[in-house]
Every structure is written in C-alpha cells, then in structure tokens.
C-alpha cells in the first residue's frame, strides 16, 4: 500500500506507505514518548509483530517526504475484548515536529482508518494520556470522542 498526497504548502509530495524493516531507525528517532531505556527493544518487538508478520489485521504506516520518514501510525483490529465487536485500535502515532501542521497526521489517520475498515472494523479506538493535550486535541479533531468503555487501572 502506498498513497501520495501533494503538499499544497510546500510543493512536496507526502507518501504514506506500509512500513518496512529498514524504517526502524527513523521510527525510533521519531518516538518522543517514555524513556530511552528499553525503547529499542520495544520497537523491535513492534516491528516484528506489525511490519514482518504479514497479518492483514495489523497495520504500520509511515509517511515520507523526499524519501525521509517523517511520521508513523500503528494500529490493529481487535475483537471480543469484554464483549466488544471487532474494532480498530490506534496505539502509536508520531509526526516529526518540523513537519507538523502539514496534515500528515490527519492523512495517516485517514489511511489507517481505511485499512482498519477493510480488515472488518466499524469503529476506531485509541487511548490518550489526559495530560497529553496535543495528542488529545489531534484525535478529537479527527472525530474521536469518549467511547462506551471506561479505562480502569491499578498500580
């Protein structure tokens, strides 16, 4: 899967495509979450599962401009968790700070929603930390709102 979108602001072409194993270092560099310790091992597991597995329910997309990866989004279809019908879950998203406000995140989100729909999902879900105003605002602007399930946790 590869789709191109002309960037009306800068006359550059934004390409959204399936991630490849060779994208590992670029994705690692874009991940601004958490501590550096363990991050490489975590991303290796994610790449093994989502990039190399060939499962039609797993989706790992990257966006690139001029051959450089500038963003990524990861999601999958999950089913029957606590009686939930199959739904799409987006659990990782990042766009290079230098390339934000170009619509890249929105285009990747639209593309992964299309992929998840083709995999049988009628609903898309994600979880966002309450204090992460940027990500929360992004997903709300994409039309996501509070769902029917409540996250509970225990330390």
Q: What does this molecule look like?
A:
- It is a single chain.
- With 155 residues, this protein is of the alpha+beta class.
- The protein has one domain: Gcn5-related N-acetyltransferase (GNAT) (Aminopeptidase).
- The chain is 28% helix and 26% strand.
- It is built from 4 helices and 6 strands, in the order ββααβββαβα.
- It has helices at residues 24-30, 39-51, 104-118, 133-141; strands at 2-6, 13-18, 58-65, 68-78, 87-95, 124-125.
- The protein has a 6-stranded mixed beta sheet with strand order 1-2-3-4-5-6, with helices on both faces.
- A hairpin with a 6-residue loop joins strand 1 and strand 2.
- The radius of gyration is 15 Å and the shape is globular.
- The N and C termini lie far apart (40 Å).
- The model has no long low-confidence stretch (mean pLDDT 87).
Descriptive labels:
single chain; 155 residues; alpha+beta; Aminopeptidase; 6-stranded mixed sheet; 4 helices; 6 strands; globular
CA-atom Rg in angstroms = 15 Å
Number of strands: 6
- Annotation field: number of helices: 4
**Low-confidence blocks of residues:** none
| Structure classification | alpha+beta
Number of domain units? 1
- Average pLDDT number: 87
Strand fraction? 25-35%
How far the N terminus sits from the C terminus, by CA atoms, comes to 40 Å
Quick recap:
The chain has 155 residues and is an alpha+beta fold. The protein is built from four helices and six strands; from the N terminus they run E-E-H-H-E-E-E-H-E-H.
């Amino acid at each position: 899967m590869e789709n191109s979108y002309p960037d009306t602001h800068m006359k550059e072409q934004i390409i959204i495509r399936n991630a490849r194993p060779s994208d590992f270092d670029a994705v690692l560099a874009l991940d601004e979450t958490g501590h550096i310790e363990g991050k490489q091992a975590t991303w290796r597991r994610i790449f093994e599962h989502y990039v190399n597995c060939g499962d039609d329910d797993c989706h790992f997309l990257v966006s690139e401009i001029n051959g450089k990866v500038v963003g990524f989004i990861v999601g999958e279809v999950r089913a029957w968790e606590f009686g939930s019908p199959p739904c799409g879950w987006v659990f990782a998203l990042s766009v290079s700070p230098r390339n934000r406000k170009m619509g890249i995140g929105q285009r990747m989100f639209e593309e992964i929603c299309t992929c998840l729909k083709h995999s049988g999902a009628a609903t898309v879900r994600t979880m966002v930390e309450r204090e992460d105003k940027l990500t929360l605002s992004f997903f709300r602007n994409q039309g996501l709102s509070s769902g029917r399930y409540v996250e509970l946790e225990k330390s």
